[in-house]
């Protein structure tokens, strides 16, 4: 029996396979994303007291409030502060800090990049003392947060195990913290 198919017809399976490969390769680099709204993050923060301990300064932040900013890709954390500097300056007041949340795949940890104290008020200190404390605290905080993650993914839950192997990046969109995951 003679095959009457044209050369073009014989190439159809090859073209179909090539088209399938091209469609697969055109899939975005992240397969899915998970967003946490500002309200969801706030709910988690409401359960915590934040502590920063450094040889020079001890700071406790209570009643933390979080804000997410799309335009700068930064988060802002404000709250009541109780602080002690070298045992000589202490007081209560308020603190506002900003920074960019980042994820580092090598350590499977989240960090706050370029943290900056944008406001510090302490009732028991005069303005000059507050400025000096803010500068010292800012430097200590920047050094500390370079090496200390704000959260490290663990192997305790299946979700965190999966996130460790597929999480690629963190961004802020629509007042939500967005986690981008890659294909497995």
From TrEMBL:
Question: Which keywords annotate this record?
Answer: Lipoprotein, Signal
InterPro entries tied to this protein: DUF1439
UniProt keyword Lipoprotein, yes or no: yes
Does the record's keyword annotation contain Lipoprotein? Answer: yes
Give the signal peptide range.
1-31
Q: Which Pfam family, any one of them, does this sequence belong to?
A: DUF1439
Q: Report the coiled-coil segments.
A: none
Looking up Gene3D superfamilies in the UniProt record yields: Uncharacterised protein PF07273, DUF1439
Q: What is this protein called?
A: Putative lipoprotein YceB
Originating species: BD1-7 clade bacterium
- Lineage of source species: Bacteria, Pseudomonadati, Pseudomonadota, Gammaproteobacteria, Cellvibrionales
């Amino acid at each position: 029996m003679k095959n009457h198919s044209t050369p073009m017809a014989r190439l159809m399976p090859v073209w179909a396979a090539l088209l399938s490969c091209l469609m697969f390769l055109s899939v975005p680099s992240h397969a899915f994303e998970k967003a946490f709204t500002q309200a969801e993050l706030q709910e988690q923060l409401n359960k915590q007291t934040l502590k920063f301990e450094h040889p020079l300064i001890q700071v406790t932040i209570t009643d933390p409030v979080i804000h997410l900013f799309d335009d700068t890709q930064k988060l802002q954390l404000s709250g009541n502060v109780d602080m002690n500097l070298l045992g000589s300056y202490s007081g209560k007041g308020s603190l506002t800090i900003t920074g960019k949340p980042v994820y580092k795949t090598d350590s499977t940890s989240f960090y706050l990049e370029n943290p900056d104290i944008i406001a510090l008020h302490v009732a028991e200190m005069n303005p000059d003392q507050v400025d000096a404390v803010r500068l010292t605290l800012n430097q200590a905080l920047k050094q500390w947060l370079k090496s200390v993650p704000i959260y490290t993914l663990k192997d305790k839950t299946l979700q965190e195990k999966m996130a460790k192997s597929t999480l690629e990046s963190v961004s802020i969109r629509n007042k939500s913290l967005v986690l981008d995951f890659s294909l497995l």
